[in-house]
Amino acid sequence: MNSIRKSAAAFALLALAAGGAWAAKADVTIGIQLEPPHLDPTSAAAGAIDQVLYSNVFEGLTRFGPDGSVGPGLAESWEISADGTAYTFNLRPSVKFHDGTDLEATDVVFSLDRARSEDSQNAQKALFSGIKSVEAIDPTTVVVTLNSPQGNFLFNMAWGDAVIVAPESIDDIKNNPVGTGAFRFSEWKRGDSITIVRNADYWGAAPALEQATFKFISEPTAAFSAMMAGDIDAFYSYPAPENLVQFEADPRFTVLAGNTEGETILAINNKMEPFGDVRVRKAVSMAIDRQAIIDGAMFGYGTPIGTHFAPHHPDYVDLTGNAPHDPEAAKALLAEAGYPDGFETTLKLPPPSYARRGGEIIAAQLREVGIETEISNLEWAQWLEQVFRGYDYGLTIVSHTEPMDIGIYARPKYYFQYDNPEFQELISALSVENDPAQRSAMLKDAQRTISEDYVNGFLFQLALTSVVDARLSGIWPDAPTQAVDLTGVSWTE
Amino acid sequence: MTEEGLLRAALRSRNLVVGHLLAAAFAIGAVLSLFWTPYDVTELTIATRLQAPSAIHWFGTDHFGRDILSMIMVGAQTSIAVAIVAVGIGMGIGVPLGLAAAARRGHLLDETIMRGNDLVFAFPSLLIAIMITTVFGPSALNAIIAIGIFNIPVFARLTRGAALPLWTRDYILSARVSGKGPVRISVEHILPNVTNLLIVQGTIQFSLGILAEAALSYVGLGVQPPTPSWGRMLADSQTLIAIAPHMAMFPGFAILLTVLGLNLAGDGLRDLLDPRIRNA
Description:
Chain A has helices at residues 2-23, 47-53, 105-116, 153-156, 220-229, 244-249, 278-287, 290-298, 327-336, 353-368, 380-389, 421-432, 436-452; strands spanning 27-32, 62-64, 70-72, 75-80, 86-91, 131-138, 141-146, 183-189, 193-198, 211-216, 234-235, 253-268, 303-304, 344-349, 372-377, 395-400, 457-469, 472-473, 490-491. Chain A has 13 helices and 19 strands. The mean pLDDT of chain B is 86.
């Protein structure tokens, strides 16, 4: 009896303590799938770096909003010269880096020069290739001169790869990132988590959160139990769509289903026989039942696409009709191309479930038209080596998550090896076009060209599904860039 | 013991009967699946996915709408084929090595073979398997080789251990006197006398082989899709366990019952055949 009373008292105490902690809750733990290799967003392509640091720790001249629009960042305003080649950025006054130094125009010059230099490690050097010079006029004014007018320059400057860094802290940026954002880097427990804390000297509105921890959980079952147990408050880009039904049914959680920039494609090695023949590629595309893949691999989350372009973009053209699911027509095309009995090829699959599950479904669909695939499941490192760099594959499935990346089809050495000079001309013309109407028309042309060339099997736009504690508000539902912006996140009661 | 007596003893052993019945059930399923399965396991029907067990699909369907009963049957075929070949490799290489080591006891050959065995033995068996399949790529063949390799030292040691005392027997001495070389003696006199032990160990290794195949497939290093494998079925079911528990249950039970059956059979066989136990 005594022990029962004791434990009841202990329980009450515990409940009190928990309640007390709750009242003061200003910290958040967010699950993400991958651990960043290091913490310099300006020298690696890894999306995990931006997920943790973009907007939270590092800021650029411009920035992406939750809907993908481009707005002012460290630059309060800007003027564009009449000929479209000179951008004058007015920096916000009295912005401080986390180490106490002031943000000055020279830091912007340093950052952009570093990114576009000959030996730059920047993963998106193309963003800076049009820059002719960067000059500091006074401490808060920078002029960027371009070689030629560039329609998407402000968009380019919003990328995580274009954030402003300081020369004073650059040497140790990979372990100790020093930016201007609303949070400062605090601790990195390798293999476990990264913690950031509120920056008291932030130039903008102070964030509601005092502290945020990003926990790396790649295993879907571990993610599920961590979420259910309340060890994490939100999981950004939840890895197992099959669990979402349960989270949706549970009042403790909200499931955010948004758009990503991830075009998921069945990439075809255009230089490997028999895929050099457009009829064969068309047959592959027509053998695919997109909805079955979305239902089977993604449990219904995803939008079918007919070209390499995000459906939520205003210039998107719905071209799914170019390759409707029609196994009979696919067989006829194969016979016409000289493969009446089909052929054999390889299907190499990286780890994400869209690829592994989607691969099994596609293999079954291709088998129906006579194409036998030998499936091999690869780790990312092997995939990069064999497929991305080695061109040693027939088919593969991967999601291209960079925004506006249709330009990769203009690179004949890119892993699907599509070499069409007309398309390459179109893309180089697009890069210097400044007129919005013209740009829109060219983008639509580009989408049609690759769709009608059946370069790849265009499957679906990857959905961003995040699971969030129902009391937490402000997490971006969409992913205009790979970011978990916490500046507007808060607990509601 | 006469053959008839042996049979009677075998039927009296509950372990042996239950074990063999369990193993036989899966063997029959596997053989049957070569000719017929209730449904085609390579055909995906997304519309009927994740159905609970019913009269139409006895064991339900998986996340691609495949019939789980059919997959278990074909999976049994995969498991048994991999385990048989792997145990075959282990025996085929391990037994001659053990015989040779025993025949040359204390010599350089013996030392070389046994220390080599120790080296392979020193690594946990699954680690070797993962190493091999990572280096040479995941496939059914590499899984078989990997499981086969870690079976070698098991059989080599067993054979050597059982053969050593035999070498001091009088009939071996007389065989030597009559001019038979060590190879002929090993094959004609030693091997027949260690066969019982090898059968018992073979049964146990066979169940370990099935377990190892399931483990390798579970981590994605075994049989590749679309060939069904119990281990991969378990891996696929993992995140779905809350909404479709039958997906995990049936392959789980299949592994459990097969391994249990083979172990019971192994124990029963040992009781029956091991001279040390039999004479006691």
